[in-house]
Structures are given as structure tokens and as C-alpha cells.
Write a structure and sequence with these properties.
By secondary structure, the protein is of the alpha+beta class. Helix 1 runs antiparallel to helix 2. It has a four-stranded antiparallel beta sheet with strand order 3-1-2-6. It has a two-stranded antiparallel ribbon with strand order 4-5. Helix content is 49%, strand content 17%. It folds into two domains: 70 residues, Arc Repressor Mutant, subunit A; 94 residues, 2-Layer Sandwich (Alpha-Beta Plaits). The protein is built from five helices and six strands.
Length: 178
């Protein structure tokens, strides 16, 4: 009977890695679809080109990338890009980028996560002033904030919970620790 559970062990490990890979693929393909809304040709759309390169770097199959680009032209306005503003523990400013097919659902879920992890929703424009947009995409803090270890631990928990959300693409903070 020795070794009879070998496949069971492999199966559980494979299930975990496949789940993580699937979540990564979903996020990347949603970003590709959102970037392809403006122009489906990566030669004329630098943002799409960047997203396709990121997807390829994570070994997303080419057929899946092509379907995501095609979905953008077929879906019309079904896929939306959102930028949420919030405050985390200790008053840390947060910018949360999301791509979704249901704005109301995503807003409600992000608000719930913020509430659960000592964060709070902010009105548009109330946090963005503390960041500047990078030329290649993304945001950087204009005034990095130093925080203590207790606040850093709470913030880390919040950021991890947000990153696990399927629609959240990126999270930017104004701290020097992240």
C-alpha cells in the first residue's frame, strides 16, 4: 500500500497552482480587453502592446490573448476601466485600478473590502492629487508617507485582500514601504 496517495498529493498541489494561474490569466486578459477597446492593433496602441507583452511573459496562450482582443470589439462598452480612490489604515492614500463588466458589483465589493480592513471610500479627486501618473502607465506618490509597523501590517492585509479580487488590476499607495 505504500505510495498509494502519491497522485492525491500531486493533485492537490496542481489544483492550488492552477487556481493561482487561472486568477492571474483572468486579470491579464481583462486588462488586454480593456486596452483593446481604443484600438485592437498593438502596433498603434502602445498600452495594448504592453499588456500583451505582460500576458506573454506570464505564459498566457496566444489564442486566449487573441480572443480577449476580439472580445473588446464585440463587447463594445461592456468592459469598463475604473479608478477608485480610498484611504487605508493610518490615512494612507490608495488608488485602485479595476477592470470589470459590472461596475456596481465591483464598487460594492471593493467598498466591503475597504470596510473590513479599516479603510474608507474617498470621493473622486480627493486622493488622486497625491499621485502622479507615469508615462508608461501606473501611478507614483508625489509625497511618500512613512508609517509605523502596525499600520504597515494592516495596510499589507488590505492590499492582499484587494489583490485577490478578480477585477482589481493594480493598487498604488503613497507610502515609502510599498
Amino acid at each position: 500500500m505504500a505510495g498509494h496517495s502519491h497522485w492525491a498529493g500531486i493533485k492537490h498541489k496542481k489544483e492550488i497552482t492552477d487556481k493561482k494561474k487561472g486568477a492571474t490569466f483572468s486579470k491579464l486578459l481583462a486588462a488586454v480587453t480593456a486596452a483593446a477597446k481604443r484600438d485592437p492593433n498593438p502596433d498603434f496602441n502602445p498600452r495594448l502592446r504592453t499588456m500583451v507583452e505582460k500576458a506573454r511573459a506570464q505564459n498566457v496562450p496566444a489564442s486566449n490573448i487573441e480572443r480577449a482582443i476580439q472580445r473588446a470589439s464585440e463587447a463594445g462598452g461592456a468592459i469598463e476601466e475604473l479608478l477608485f480612490e480610498a484611504y487605508g489604515p493610518g490615512g494612507v492614500a490608495l488608488l485602485i485600478e479595476a477592470t470589470t463588466d459590472s461596475k456596481n458589483r465591483t464598487v460594492a465589493e471593493v467598498k466591503k473590502l475597504l470596510t473590513d480592513f479599516e479603510g474608507k471610500w474617498a470621493e473622486p479627486g480627493s486622493v488622486r492629487w497625491a499621485f502622479e501618473e507615469m508615462p508608461g502607465g501606473g501611478w507614483t506618490s508625489k509625497f511618500p508617507l512613512a508609517i509605523d509597523t502596525e499600520v504597515a501590517a494592516k495596510l499589507h492585509s488590505l492590499v492582499e485582500a484587494l489583490e485577490e479580487h478578480a477585477d482589481v488590476q493594480a493598487i498604488y499607495t503613497n507610502t515609502s514601504q510599498f
